[in-house]
Specification:
The structure holds 3 protein chains of 3 kinds. Chain A is an all-alpha fold. Chain A is built from 15 helices and no strands. Chain C contains 11 helices and 2 strands; from the N terminus they run H-H-H-H-E-E-H-H-H-H-H-H-H. Chain C has a two-stranded antiparallel sheet with strand order 1-2. In chain C, a hairpin with a 2-residue loop joins strand 1 (131-134) and strand 2 (137-140). The longest helix of chain C is centred in the first third of the chain and has 32 residues, at 3-34.
């Protein structure tokens, strides 16, 4: 089901599938920490997938909001003694607002100019982080971030399994949100804007406002993922806000397929697992990723998830005929 | 004798400049409520540019546009829709990858209050909304093709959808840009009837090259040539107008 | 900051600025000509820099490096275009961005594979390793040579654009691709030529920059970022824009680096964002 392209139902088989996968993941993968990493990047990739698949906006700046979420949550946890849940929520909220503000500027431009603008913002974020090294730790990152209970006194995150449960819960919530939006009036407007913005505007939709809202939402998702990353690692590496992060998220989104939110999970899973498995065998595995990216753009536009859905549809049709 | 009611739409002294090129100069026109007002002229006369200014897609370099007495010159297109304006496009401009029904539903949803911002539930399952889509599909003759991908429709079907989308928001003034372009004779007849039946409940502003239809159904005609109005009046007067005949060089009249 | 340091930094800035010009002029012309966004442009810079490194190791001659480096980049550019990029012309911009980005990634990984991830030093050629006296100031000879060589190339390029048929087509094509094809000119061949030339110039920039900053695999990514800034600030499709933009960015970066290095980079990308928002045509581009 190409949820972003056509709509679909909420909830549906994919919802169940994603939920089941999240439950099964720590048992299927060699370690729980790997599962946690996957889940964190799934949410981060979801922010790219949502923007590209539903609204048609390619943003090279989602790493900026990932980084913002990571640093804000890190500072809140370390310097202000917030519980884990409020820190994560505040970081996500901050990213939401920051994204909304930047979107107000960015949506004034379309196409390549928009992409370049997101790139410029991403770079500015990184160098601002370096400039503010007293707060962010600069090149060394933000170390010594504690992992307090979720709320004051309740929900201690003792051990990697508890952390995974927390992160997987957030990831599922994020997935539900995006899937819900895809099958809602708001989502239908975004879909129309991606198809034909001029027509949407002529129908009476304030397309600029919708794009800003979508961008802010994507910022929320990326910021949430960044905060999850901080909780997961216990520190904030400077690469959380580097341009490379934005690029990594785009790669994951494209590999998984931007046609549906499940694509984000598939893409993130693919990348994280490849990195874990191949990096010890062959450190230059990114080369293969580059080749895969080209192959997908040229031959399999809807990515791995989209390809799987196409295959399923074809099998169903064959069975009906036979 | 009773005074004529104020025009629903009025434009005064409109001018549009693209760099050194003057697309429109000193265009003044008034459209009475419930009238079918046609805008004709040779290619490149600025008809679509005029439409773009009247509907808010383009800002004029000078002049004002008023709708029911309210100055809307600087109001963006999407805001004008909520004041009761709608338009169709000369080059078919539908959502090709969405279904025919979805195209129409989007048009209806646009003016349905805060509905476009609802993200926590599915698309409106209210029977009223569905009924509206059904009615529009019937009117456009597309009921049997509701689930088709809009891009797969025939040219005539797509033009019908264009008009359907313009009417979906129940506008009080509709701008139709060459609705009959490229249509077969049956479609032309059906569409002509459809357009004619829109008035006087609604007001229609029409750009068309099909002179026979224009002279048949229009209440008033404005003729543009090279960005300027060169004649305006009822069909009989326009038909007899020498300047208009010159501008068209006898084509289609 | 003392006068001497300021002059030094401004001169450095001009030198770097000329390198930025060479880096960006190809990118801006290609974008103006074919509306093609080339995220692999930085890789062309990278390849030539490493070729310069290898050549200087093998022969000790910078001259050879300056010839072979750009040639390697031009060949890479043409190969990429023929084998891969031409399939993306009919695709939306996003596809072009992603494919060229993937090419850049692959090139970067190949470089790390052949060499290693650490930065390497490229020695300044012996005959240019001294200093030159400019009145009361002393200045490294190599940096001056960079300015001289870049300026000479810029002049040759300008002459080519103004005086040759190819140059005229290039300028016209940057304004309107349809016009050029309507004139019966094989737009594709012109584009290929421009692509190769742009690649060679980026390569020259890389080869010239190698002794100044050393070579390391991520310099391609960094160069791409700078190239985008220069293209945006100078104006898409404009030769003079690339020149003015390059010099401006180079001088600003150089001067600011001496008292607030992080701020320098921040300002540069801030300038890019500002131009994109306020005047996307840049300094010299068509509106």
């Amino acid at each position: 089901m190409s949820a972003f392209r056509e709509g679909g139902h909420f909830p549906d088989g994919t919802t169940l599938g994603v939920g089941a996968a999240l439950v099964a993941l720590p048992f299927l993968l060699p370690s729980v920490t790997l599962a946690s990493e996957l889940v964190v990047f799934a949410v981060a990739t979801l922010s790219c997938t949502f923007l590209l698949g539903l609204v048609g906006l390619l943003s090279f700046g989602q790493g900026l909001f990932f980084g913002l979420g990571a640093y804000v949550s890190g500072v809140l946890l370390r310097e202000h003694g917030l519980g884990t849940l409020p820190a994560v929520a505040a970081a996500a909220g901050f990213s939401f607002l920051a994204a909304g503000l930047l979107a107000f500027l960015a949506v004034r431009r379309q196409g390549v100019y928009f992409v370049m603008l997101t790139l410029a913002f991403a770079q500015m974020g990184y160098f601002a982080m370096l400039a503010l090294k007293d707060v962010t730790g600069g090149e060394n990152g933000l170390t010594g971030v504690p992992r307090p209970p979720l709320l004051a006194g309740a929900g201690t995150l003792s051990g990697p399994e508890a952390v995974y449960a927390f992160l997987a819960g957030l990831a599922f919530a994020a997935y539900l949100l995006v899937q819900r939006i895809g099958c809602s009036p708001f989502g239908s407007v975004l879909r129309a804007i991606r198809q034909n913005e001029a027509r949407a505007e002529a129908l009476g939709y304030d397309t600029r406002r919708f794009k800003i809202a979508a961008f802010a939402l994507a910022g929320l998702l990326a910021g949430l993922a960044g905060a999850m990353h901080t909780v997961f690692l216990g520190f904030v590496p400077p690469n959380a806000i580097e341009l490379e992060m934005s690029e990594r998220l785009i790669i994951m989104a494209i590999i998984g397929g931007a046609g549906a939110p499940a694509g984000a999970f598939v893409g993130a899973g693919f990348y994280v697992l490849m990195a874990d498995w191949l990096s010890t065998l062959w450190p230059r595995w990114l080369m293969l990723i580059g080749v895969l990216l080209i192959a997908i753009v040229l031959f399999l536009r809807e990515g791995v998830w989209g390809g799987a859905m196409l295959l399923l549809a074809r099998l169903r049709r064959a069975r009906r005929r036979g | 004798m009773a005074e004529a009611p104020p025009p629903l739409l009025a434009a005064r002294g409109l001018g549009v400049r693209f760099g050194d090129f003057r697309a429109l100069s000193e265009v003044t026109l008034e459209v009475a409520a419930g009238a079918l007002h046609a805008i004709i002229g040779p290619n490149g006369a600025g008809k679509t540019t005029l439409f773009n200014v009247l509907t808010g897609r383009l800002r004029p370099s000078e002049g004002i546009v008023t709708l029911a007495g309210r100055d809307v010159t600087r109001l963006p297109a999407h805001r004008r829709v909520h004041l009761g304006m709608a338009r169709s496009f000369q080059v078919t401009n539908i959502f090709a990858d969405l279904t025919v029904a979805e195209n129409l539903r989007l048009a209806i949803q646009a003016v349905d209050g805060w509905e476009p911002w609802v993200f926590w539930r599915g698309r409106s399952a209210l029977p009223a909304a569905a009924g509206r889509v059904e009615a529009l599909l019937e009117e456009a003759g597309l009921a049997s093709r509701a689930a088709w991908r809009a891009g797969d429709l025939s040219h005539g079907g797509q033009r019908a959808l264009e008009i359907g989308m313009a009417l979906a928001a129940d506008p009080r003034i509709v701008f139709l840009d060459e609705p009959l372009a490229g249509m077969g004779i049956d479609d032309v007849h059906r569409t002509k009837e459809l357009i004619h039946n829109l008035v006087p409940a609604r007001t229609v502003v029409l750009i068309e090259h099909n002179m026979r239809v224009v002279l048949d159904i229009a209440d008033r005609i404005t003729v543009l040539a090279q960005g300027r109005p060169i004649a305006e009046g009822p069909p009989a007067a326009i038909r007899a107008n020498a300047a208009v005949r010159d501008a068209y060089l006898g084509s289609g009249m | 900051m003392s006068g001497q340091v300021l002059v030094f930094q401004v001169l450095n800035g001009l030198g770097i600025g000329m390198i930025y010009f060479l880096l960006s002029v190809g990118l801006t012309m290609i974008f103006g000509l074919m509306r093609f966004v080339n995220f692999a442009h930085g890789a062309l810079y990278l390849v030539a820099a490493y070729v310069a490194y290898v050549v200087s190791l093998l022969t000790g001659s910078m001259l050879w490096a300056l010839l072979v480096g750009p040639l390697a980049s031009a060949l890479l550019a043409v190969a990429a275009e023929r084998l891969l990029l031409r399939r993306t012309y009919s695709m939306p911009h996003e596809a072009q961005i992603l494919v060229t980005f993937a090419v850049a990634l692959i090139v970067q990984e190949v470089v790390i594979l052949l060499f290693d991830p650490l930065a390497k030093n490229v020695p300044v050629p012996d005959f240019l390793s001294g200093i030159v006296f400019l009145g009361p100031f002393v200045y490294p000879a190599y940096r001056l040579a960079v300015v001289a060589v870049s300026a000479a190339v810029a002049l040759l390029l300008w002459l080519a654009l103004e005086r040759t048929r190819f140059g005229a087509i290039l300028r016209a094509g940057s304004e309107s691709t349809e016009m050029v094809s309507l004139l019966g000119i094989n737009v594709h061949r012109v584009f290929l030529g421009a692509f190769a030339l742009g690649g060679a110039l980026a390569g020259l920039a890389g080869a010239l920059a190698a002794p100044l900053r050393g070579v390391e695999p991520f310099m391609g990514l960094e160069a791409l970022g700078i190239a985008f800034v220069v293209v945006v600030v100078g104006g898409i499709g404009s030769f003079t824009g690339a020149l003015l933009g390059g010099l401006l960015i180079g001088v600003v970066q150089s001067v600011m680096s001496s008292f607030w290095p992080e701020g320098a980079r921040l300002m540069i990308y801030g300038a890019m964002a500002l131009v994109l928002l306020a005047r996307p045509a840049g300094l010299m581009g068509r509106a």
